[in-house]
Each structure stands twice: as C-alpha cells, then as structure tokens.
Amino acid sequence: MKGPEALNHSLKPIRIVAKEDKEEGLISMADPLSPMARLFHEPDCNLYVIAMIGFKTRLDPDVVKLNLKHTLLKHPRFSSLQVKLEENGEMRWVPTEVDLEKHVIVPDISCLDMETSSDKYVEDYICSITEPIVDFSKPLWDLHLLNVKTSDADAVAVFRIHHSIGDGSSLMSLLLACTRKSSDPKALPSIPMMMKKPKSSVAGLRKWWKAFVLIWNTIIDALMVIATIMFLKDRDTPITGPPNVGSTRRRIIHRTISLDDVAIVRNATNATVNDIMVGITQAGLSRYLNRRYGEANKNIKKGSTKKKNNLPKNLTIRATHYVDIRPSAGIHKLVEMMEKGSDAIWGNRIGYVLLPLSIALRDNPLDYVRTAKAAMDRKKASLEALYVHSMAGLIPSLFGSKTGSVLCLKVPARTTIWYSNVVGPQEEIAFFGYPISYVAPSCFGQPNAVMLHVVSYMNKINMILSVDETTVPDPHQLLNDLEKSFDHIKNAAISRML
Questions:
Q1: 10-residue mean pLDDT series, the chain (498 residues)
Q2: So what's the pLDDT on residue 288?
Q3: Is the dihedral of CA 52, 56, 58, 64 positive or negative?
Q4: pLDDT at res. 17
Q5: What's residue 13's pLDDT?
Q6: Cβ atoms within 10 Å of 280's Cβ, excluding its own
Q7: Strands 450-457 and 315-324, how do they pair?
Q8: Half-sphere exposure of residue 228: CA atoms within 13 angstroms, side-chain side
Q9: The pTM is what?
Q10: Rounded to whole angstroms, how far apart are CA atoms 290 and 484?
C-alpha cells in the first residue's frame, strides 16, 4: 500500500520577500522557530504526532474541508511554512496560502481486498504513513479520511502533524477546540481539571523537611539524567530497539478498557488513574517479556502462556514518562484564537521524568499498582520535569540544534519505552458534526521500539501502542498481555473489597 507522496527531509535555504498586508498596509516579519521546534528538524529527532479518530458515521470530505477553513487554518502554525533563511540559515514561520486538496487525503478504497479485514486495512494504511519524511513545501500536517467500517467505528480520520508545530497536549487541546458536545452542538467539551492540592498548614520542621526532600530529589534526578547522557543505559531486553529505530515505520494499534473498572482498582488501592495505568504497564510488560525470554531460551513454545518465570533476576527498565509542564490554556482560549485571532499558550512545553519499571512475576497483582504508586509519588516530589525542559531549551541555544538533538535524545534513547497519558472529554463529542467513537493519539520517529500512550474518553481508557515491528513482531499479543494484566489487577481489587 502506498502512502502520500513524500519528499526528502532536507531544507533548502530560500530568500523571503515580505508581503504587504492588504488590510493594515504593514510589513510583518516571519516569526523564528523556537529552539525546541528547531530540534525536531534534526535527523535523529524527527518526531511526528499522529492521532486516529474513530467516527460513528461516514465522513463527507467536502464538509470536513469547509470546516477546516474556519477552524484549524485560523491557527498560524497550521497555515505557515517552515523555511531556512538564505542570509543566516535561521528557520522561520512564513505564512502561506493553504491548499486543502494537498492536506486532506481521501484514499481510494474501491480496491480494498474483500479477504482483507477492514481493521487490518486501516492498521496497514496508518503504518504506511509513519515514515518520518514529509513534504516541506507545505505546512507540516495532513489529514487522511478513511470511510472504512471497522470493528469500532464507521469511519476513521488520521491526523499527522510534525512535532515542531506543537506538543501532544497543545495539539490535543486544539483538536478538542474544533469539537462540540454531541448532546449540545454549541457547547465545548468538558475536560476534567487537575485539582490543586490545598495549601498545607504544616509549619516548622516538617515544612522545611518537605522542601529539603524536594531539593534533594531534584538533585538526584538531575544527576541521573546527566549520567544517562554520559553512560547509563537500560539493560538490553527483547523490546530494546536497534540503532536508528526512529527511522522505521510503526505499527500503531489500540485497545480500550472500562474507566469504571479502573475506578474499582483506584478505590481498593488509593492510587490515581495514572498510577494504575503505570501498574498495568509493569504487569503487561512483565507478562510479555517473560514469554519472549522463554521463547528465546526454548523453555516454552511460541504463544504459550505458561507461568514459569523466565525473567532475569532484578530486572528494571525505565520509561521516559512525558509530562506537560505548561499552565493549562484551556480550549476556550484556543477557540477565541481561531475565531478572533487572540493569543493563546502554544508550542512545545514538555518535560519528562525517568520512571523505573519493575519487571517481575508477582503473586499479588495489586503489587504492580503499589510499586507504580510508590515510584510516581517519588517523582512528584521532584522538579525533574522542569529541569529537563529547561535543559532541552538551553542546550540547543548554546550548542546548536544538531548538537542539542544528540544530547537531548540520548536520554530517551537510553531508556526502554516512552510513556505518555492525556485526560480526554468526559462526554461524547462531535468533530464538525460527526460523533466520535474513540480517540487514539500516538507518535512515530522516536528512538525507542515501544511507546505506550494512554487517553481517556467518556467512560473508557484507550491504550495505544506504537511499535517497531522488527523488535515487537506481535504487538497484538502485547496489547493482550496489558488487557489480561488489568483483568487480574481488577479481580484482585474486587476480592480485596469483599
């Protein structure tokens, strides 16, 4: 299957001629790319955000294009080229006229083989557009409309957006700003907000102790980041990717679990939803890696689910856990930006923490959640994410984007998986009037073979895997292991509450 046409990744210097604004009669200079945005143009850091959206009805491409003109194209980053100046090599955003015919792609499905399932067709199509190459002669995004009925949707839309345009949280907020509640076509979606902890009344020695712990943990975490840049690397496992894994195509699949079932575990463990999802990740990876080690050692047959422990002792891997560090602008601000041209917080404002994952077969499934909660509580008592974000902006400014990309990517590349989570709408929403059945965002171009993204929508949680198939040849099995691990954790929680 052939994806959209792609050009070489190189950017040729051009000369920009300023155009006169017809309304104001003023000459406006193009904005320079931020250091973080420039970073995402380096060969080893060529990242893309991809979002699959399932719909309950078929899509009319003409209706989608008409609405894009009044929403997404009002955002300057989606209607600007990224060009390198001839004079000094600096990269800038240059406004341009957007030809939607080149951005909205509707593949011909008349040749769909009846023996090929529609789910497999969509999965293969998405895989075909995950090579990290895009046409720099136009704004760096496109939208693919697949009017193919699958097991969980009547049609699928796939956004592909270069990471230099914005981070996942910014792009998710912008997408939601283009939607409305299905129950009220004029109302914006409701997004659960993170509740601020009440100011502690603790005084004296305990207050100073908490401050000391925060500073101490931040120093330790900063040293671990530096050590990872210099020499520290996760132990190789069957899911460790080969060199240059970021340039390979990705198989992106997803599976949903019930948010109500997650609430059962939360009530039994006093853990957050993110703690539980990290615990499920530990349990699922333990189950999957135990099988892979057994197959490699010929202790079990391929596909077997025997519980014999084939894992190395004291196996710990790390996840690069991405964190949005910006104050939330809210989707209302983005709506105002598209309707009135007002300002809104935008860009790449992300950091990450290096989260240890304990890989082991445990007798009590709830122990996976307990260890995850302990690890997350420890990371919350640290400013590691802010430190990483500051360094990610400072290093390219001091040493250039090429050196910066090497240094900034060394840390994530020396961990085993990428992990991210986003809170989605609590009720059903519609995109340009089309009701959405699921949302499944992910990434490709990352220097790891496995990424797990978690997003909530209505009463469900979607787990999205992005994998390099040469490293993980059976991604559906990994999803099965994650789902079965959650079932064991949920059943253990129910038994505990009886």
A1: 40 42 38 77 81 96 94 89 77 90 90 74 94 79 95 96 84 85 88 58 76 96 94 96 89 96 96 96 97 83 66 95 71 61 62 95 96 96 92 77 71 93 90 96 93 94 96 97 97 92
A2: 97
A3: negative
A4: 43
A5: 42
A6: 30
A7: unpaired
A8: 28
A9: 0.87
A10: 14
Beta carbons of 428 and 451 less than 8 angstroms apart? no
The dihedral formed by the CA atoms of 178, 436, 149 and 59, expressed in degrees to the nearest 10: -30
Predicted local distance difference test score (pLDDT) of residue 10: 42
CA dihedral sign of residues 248, 251, 252, 257: negative
Q: Using CA atoms, how far apart are residues 52 and 60, in angstroms rounded to an integer?
A: 17
Picking from 172, 177, 162, the residue whose alpha carbon sits closest to that of residue 38 is 162
63 three-class SS: helix
In Å, what is the CA distance from 369 to each residue of 36, 459, 460, 497? 34, 21, 19, 16
pLDDT at residue number 333 = 64
* 442 contacts: CB under 8 Å, gap ≥ 6: 49, 50, 51, 52, 250, 252, 451, 453, 464, 465, 466
Token pair listed for 441: 């965002």
Which residues are 355's β-sheet partners?
319
Q: Residues 75-89, buried b or exposed e (16+ Cβ, 10 A)?
A: bebbbbbbbbbeeee
- The number of residues in the chain equals 498
DSSP code string of 244-302: TGGGS--EEEEEEEEHHHHHHHHHHHT--HHHHHHHHHHHHHHHHHHHHHHHHTTSS-T
Residue type, 247: S
Catalytic residues: 163
CA proximity to 311, closest of 338, 333, 288? 288
pLDDT for 110 equals 76
Residues 280, 454 contacting (CB under 8 angstroms): no
**Pair 278, 375: CB distance under 8 Å:** yes
Q: What does DSSP assign to residue 27?
A: B
Is residue 48 within 8 A of residue 443, CB to CB? The reply is: yes
Decide: helix, strand or coil at residue 218. helix
CA–CA dist 449, 427 (Å, integer): 33
Provide the terminal-to-terminal Cα distance of the chain, rounded to the nearest Å: 53
Q: Which of 22, 141, 129, 28 has its CA nearest to residue 81?
A: 141
Q: Quote the CA–CA distance of 352 and 406 in Å, as a whole number.
A: 17
d(CA 441, CA 420): 10
Residue pair 460/256 in contact by the 8 Å Cβ criterion: yes
